[in-house]
Amino acid sequence: MSCGRTKSEAIVTDVLSPMAVEEVIKVLKNDGNPLPFSLHTDASNRGNRKMFPLGVQFFTPSAGIVNKVIDFVETADETADGIAKMLLSCLQNLGLSPEQISAFSADNANVNYGRHNSVFTKLRETNDGILRGNCHAHIIHNTLKKALDSLSVDVENIVLKVFGFFSLSAKRRESLKEFCEFCDVEFHEILRHVVTRWLSLNPAITRLLQNWVPLKSYLVSIGDECPRHLQRLLRLTEDAAEVEESDTVEVYLLFCNNVMSLFEEVVKKLERNLTTAVDLYAIMESFLRGLKQRRDDEFYGYLTKRRLQRLIPSDADVARQEFKAFLNHAIDYLEKWFDYSDKNWLFNLQPLSLTSGKISFDDLEKIIEQLRLVGRLNLCMDNVYEECVTANGLLAHLTAPQEDWQSKQTAERWMQLLQAAALPNLQAVASFLLSIPSSTGFVERIFSLMNAKWSDVRNRCSTALIKAELIVSLNYGMPCSEFYSAALNNKRLLAAARSQKKYKWKQ
Fold first, then answer.
1. Residue 59: count of CB within 10 angstroms of its CB
2. Which residues of the chain register pLDDT less than 50?
3. pLDDT tens-digit readout, 412-467
4. CA distance 142 to 333
5. Do residues 214 and 138 lie in contact, with contact meaning Cβ atoms separated by under 8 Å?
6. Going by fewer Cβ within 10 Å, which terminus of the chain is more open, N or C?
7. How far, in Å, CA of 157 to CA of 489, rounded?
8. Residues whose CB falls within 8 Å of the CB of residue 24, separated by 6 or more in sequence, listed in order
9. 3-class SS at 451?
10. What one-character DSSP code corresponds to residue 12?
11. Closest among 21, 80, 76 to 51, alpha carbons compared
């Protein structure tokens, strides 16, 4: 089947996209027993237009954690009141109630989470049980930025300036390749670092270190042609007695390359769709513990330690003091912006990860009371106790072998438990808590996909078409062959595709 541009666009915007949203809404309404869901949103510019995707996250025993797009809105009103009204209006148009919202997920801007006038406070006026689902990956990123300020070597600026120097000239790149051959070093492309991309800095530092000896030699050899800001940043000089000073920069790069692996690891964990609020406290605590352990052991990386031994003792001592200051600043910033006390509601969620292979009624009761879930989820606490007893009996069998159980994600463990027996009260609690994300990774990926679809080649696409394509791409997770079979068996879909009503001017 082949279609012209007009027909293809009509099928996507008026047939496939509405059906994709309708299927999500049907699951959320759940035959009169509505599922709790977290509401995701963020803002991104498309030229002089402001776009807001609306995503939802929910949990079902059959599908696990599900992330879907329900709308994609263009609006110029970026105020807290305007965004809140837009969100509530979209939910109303789709037949969803604010009472179903378990958490509001957005980046950590004041407009979203300000104390007195924010989107979060506006939404809580309609449902005071909505929890914060702010982006903890953003906190990790800000921690790194804050800690880097304590170093005398501007690592991020070095990466940006070196890339800028070589990206403008093919001749410089070829010269660097020749220096790599002369130094018997395999040439690696210099990578670009984008300040808004949280995971691009460390790979760029890795490439600098891989090319470090030929790179330094090349920049020294070109003399005055090397920009003065690069000479200053890399501490380059033609004086042979002082050229080893540039090794100080290498030591700092090696330290950052080593310690940033911790930051990368935790950001990747937080941005996974399967990571939820239940896992959040353990991830943040493990990260803080890793930083403290490095500070107490004064471990800055094996290669860093070896390079430090080559420096003048006074320079090595200064570097060690700055590395320790880096870790202290990172620890202080983390403890300021994340509550590591046992009063944090995220702390009490940890037992529900089921890593121990059992559910304590006391732990569950504490969570239910703290989040006031009895009335909201219509729970019967006596039945909750009975279901805990039943669940512990099932978990004794499900956790064998223990290695397989520990390798599963939290949502996968709950899926296996809830598929083994009917536990309606525990299912209600799990559905609520597992719907709360740990970061805004899902909506950030929507923006990446938006930019790929709304490219310069397709710059005349309407917002409605891009919205429909995003919804179809993200909500249908099946392979093409499965979708083909499903479409053939869906008579209503085929009738809508054939109908002339798919064209707006004929509706």
1. 25
2. 1, 239-244
3. 999 999 999 999 999 999 999 999 998 888 988 888 888 888 888 888 888 888 89
4. 9
5. no
6. N
7. 57
8. 56, 68, 70, 475
9. helix
10. I
11. 76
Please, what are the domains in the chain?
Answer: 5-135+440-506 (3.30.420.40), 140-337 (no CATH), 345-433 (no CATH)
What Å distances lie between residue 44 and 324, 424, 491, CA to CA?
Answer: 37, 40, 38
Q: Bridge-partner residues for 69, per DSSP?
A: 55
Place of tokens 């471990």: 299
Please, what is the angle between helix 313-337 and helix 136-148, to 10°? 150
Contacts of 119 (CB under 8 A, 6+ apart): 80, 83, 84, 87, 104, 106, 111, 112, 113
What does the pLDDT look like over 376-414, one tens digit per residue?
999 999 999 999 999 999 998 888 877 788 888 999 999
Distances (CA, A) of 383 to 266, 389, 417: 38, 10, 17
- The structure's pTM equals 0.89
Tokens of 167: 């990206």
> Distance (Å, rounded) from C-alpha 57 to C-alpha 38?
5
Cα–Cα nearest to 112, from 61, 155, 52: 52
Q: Which residues fall within 8 angstroms of residue 274, CB to CB, at 6 or more apart? A: 64, 65, 409, 410, 411, 412
Report d(CA 122, CA 84) in Å as an integer.
6
How far apart are the C-alpha atoms of 316 and 275, rounded to whole Å?
40
